[in-house]
Amino acid sequence: MDDFCKSWASCCNSWNIPEEFSWDSSIVSTQSPESSSAIFSAKADLQSKDLSSSSPSGGDSTGPTGDSKFPSVPGVVGPVLPFLTKFQKDWSDRIKVVGSASELEEAYSQFILSIGGKPSRRRSRPRNPARRNSRRHLPSAEPAENSTSTAGSSSSAPSAGEPLTKRYDPVEASRLQKLFRANQKKALQSILSGPPRYCEISPDAVEDHFVRVFSENPFDPTFKFLTYDDPVACHLITDHMSPEEVWDKLRALKNSAPGPDGIFYSNFKSRDPGAHVLSAFFNKVLDLSTVPSSWKEAKVVLIPKPGDPLDISNWRPVSLLNTGGKVFSSVLAARISSWANINSRLSPFQKGFRENDGCSEHNFILEQAITGAKRLHLDLSMAWLDLENAFGSVPHRFILEALGHAGVPSSTVDIISAMYTGSTSTIRTSAGWTGPIPMRAGVRQGCPLSAILFNLSLEQILRTGISAPGFRLYGQEVKCLAYADDLLLLGQSPVDLQDNINSICGVAALAGLRFKPSKCASLSFNYTGNKRTIDDASFLVAGTPIRNINDQEAYKYLGVRVGLSYKQDNTEFFRGITRDVKLVAASPLAPWQKLTAIRAHVLSRAEFLCRNSHIQKRDVADLDKTLISTGKRILNLPTRANVNLVHLSSNKGGAALPHFRALLDVHAISHAFRLLASDDQLTSDVAFAGLRGVVRKKILRDPTPSECAEFLNGNKAGDFARESGDHSTLWSRARQAADRLFKYIKFSWTYNEELGCFNLNIFRSPNPVCVVPSTAGLVARLLRDDLESHYIRQLSSLVDQGKTVEVFSQHPASNHFLQAGDFTRFCDWNFIHRARLGCLQLNATMRFSKRNPKCRKCGYVRETIPHVLNHCKPHSDAWKRRHDAIQNRVARAISSSVGSVSINKKFPGIAQTLIPDMVLTKKSGEVFVIDFTVAFEDRLSSFAKARQGKIDKYLPIVEHLRREGKVAHVDAIVVGSLGSWDPSNDAALAQMGVSKKYAKLMRKLICSDTIRWSRIFISNILLTRNSIDPSHRRASFVSFWPPG
């Protein structure tokens, strides 16, 4: 099941694959050459270089009006045009005259070639087995990715005794940073697991194995298919696909490894915006009930799994299908899934590949069954069943028959039959590609249709194969929990459970499927009075005994280990996560790339476990320490820097590395609320009944729903003060989590008597939020946002390090460089985070220093960051340059069609000598007086004072114009010395007619300009006599590099 989930997700995610399929940076790059980040060695960043291409004062990737100066690349998707391009019109006209399968085949092949694809080559299978190797095409590069030996750590990572820091290699750094921009997963695999491994098994053995795997698997014709009620809403499947429907699906798909045609999703998006041509092709497929032959081709890359690499079962196949067929399958799969839900064609206990959080809900039901049986002293028997190669062995005829009996329209069944008939796969081996191997059984791996087709097929087995009584959980009968092919059967007695096992095994055998006893397991216990006994008898699967786990053992079900008295220990998992964080931090990636890699690829592996498993705080203690130290190193912060900046999100100016101890509490609250608010009736009923049972044991009486809410709020008064002596449950953990989180954020559980549901009130400032069941998915995000606000409040309360955080966290543009390093040099990166926390090595800011605090340039009494950046007179010329850089960018952004602009001219007609920075006279006669100022970010009030000061200064000009009968306004553009953007500037830009598109880019450029000039001020101070040695590693941020 895990193998299929990973493979099936490949249709939506990017796999690490051979160079033959790897992304070309010219295709996937979303940055123009002039906006790319500077990539250079640590030593080189101390030298002066000409980086006009990345300089904020240099060329822009977008003109002032928002028009791109560069031709679009396939990786960049622009807005949907309100009209068809000539390319789309020509192809739409050509598709209209297609009237046969052969014409469709020819037209689609030409279309793929026209957007940059490869010609389809249908290779026949070699006739002479003895010469198969000579016919294979040699591989052009290395294979995909390596597996991991454990859930938390990489298999080929250095041992504990190996150093994590290697000699810096600028060539390797450049290569790895470019690879990361093109394919993040592949770059991470290179860092964590080293060079990829080839499958060294004999190519003949590999081909023979997959010939057997894909061979026809007949099912018994006596199989009795279910008969359903007549379906409704069949038009949802058969109607023509509108361009809007196809475009919505295509737009949501991210670039993944292309199939044999070499086409990415971005090729379709850039050449066919709005999906007008694609939808026309897809409708011809619906009309003709046939598909292009290229949709039937697949290339398979073998990915190693833990175990003996010479055992073919330890290599996971990953199919690469042609992209056009995957888009069509995505749309058709969504249609069939909606139709199946409307017609109740899937059982409620089948949660595989459906919209709800099936893994969490099934694990919860299982936990409640075990806990409820232990609390109430009930007998319980359960068996985990594993279908052998379930997805790869379902007979094609059985799939088509199941679809027909479910009521899927015959025309749709014909299209699916066409997709499966004649489908082939070529397997990559160490010697090249095998010949095309016919796929005569199983759903197609990597195809978006496979999930719903498998579920509808398996439904015939689940509905007919389970008849004996199940386990009664809080009055609800639970017989089976299914997540695709992962089955869990429950019964009140061993006899009932064995009856259901025998029944479902028999039905599965008739369908051509069989269970694998070696991967099945059971747990059965009963009570005699208060004494619990584990049954010794083994259950039989297809006549073979399966493992019966004992009191302390566990079985891994849907990613979580569960057992009767098993105490979860995730130390090893998080130790692996910690090690991978250190490996990424020690790699030659750019600092912003390191943060992205850690967040998106390393820590994301722990998210599922955090949401669905009971994790002890001690399990994540080392990880939290490592994240803090790593975050400070990447941000170039000293040890004394406050840790809250590490936990802030990138939009707020932080590293976005979570504090796992607090994150676990957030997930505990979120998980509890989602279960109580679940759309699945069984889950919500069991959740409420389980909560009532826990509260009942606490207060020794039947609780009201409001008392249940008080329990979850952590109330310790009255009846809630006593110890219950109960088992640890999800509800007790949610109660403890709320008690801990109340120290940082304010929220409360409530029960709505009128609607009969729980709500969660989050008292955010300034706008409180009430989360209702329909928005349960927002709980974790809202709590994390409120926790982030706590970090900002806590940091801003510091006298020395908290002056600027309230300001630079106001607008995302102030911190745009944290995401991808846009318009940012390494020296600027190393400077800005220290400067914002007040940790620069200036005479008056260095801790425990006996140095003279006077300014080294002007002799002012205290050399502080505000003084150096805004008040040190020897820098007056640099102030003007910094000011003019901002002013000139805004002036260039105003189109001549808006009006005329005058710069730095004395305003005539008034007694005072006032020279505003800019006066915009619109063609309508309206006049805008704009002045620019760079203020130090000393609390929020600093920007308001700076703006008001400019308005008051130039108000006489506006009053003079108004007396003349003109419409006049005065405003200011305020930017922080440390690159903070005042949100009030946006209104001024809109009044000046700056397009929203260019304003978004210009804000980033202005902030980067300001940071660059401010770093030069500090450099000029620190490079004077009596300063620290600029060659020292800690002083690398002081290198002189003039902008422009």
UniProtKB/TrEMBL annotation:
InterPro entries: DNA/RNA_pol_sf, Rev_trsase/Diguanyl_cyclase, RT_dom. One of its GO terms (biological process) is DNA biosynthetic process. Residues 52-73, 144-163 have a biased composition (Low complexity). Residues 47-73, 117-168 are annotated as: Disordered. PROSITE patterns: RT_POL. It comes from the Eukaryota. Pfam families: RVT_1 (PF00078). Residues 119-138 have a biased composition (Basic residues). Transmembrane segments: none annotated. Residues 284-562 form the Reverse transcriptase domain. This is Retrovirus-related Pol polyprotein from type-1 retrotransposable element R2. It comes from Nephila pilipes.
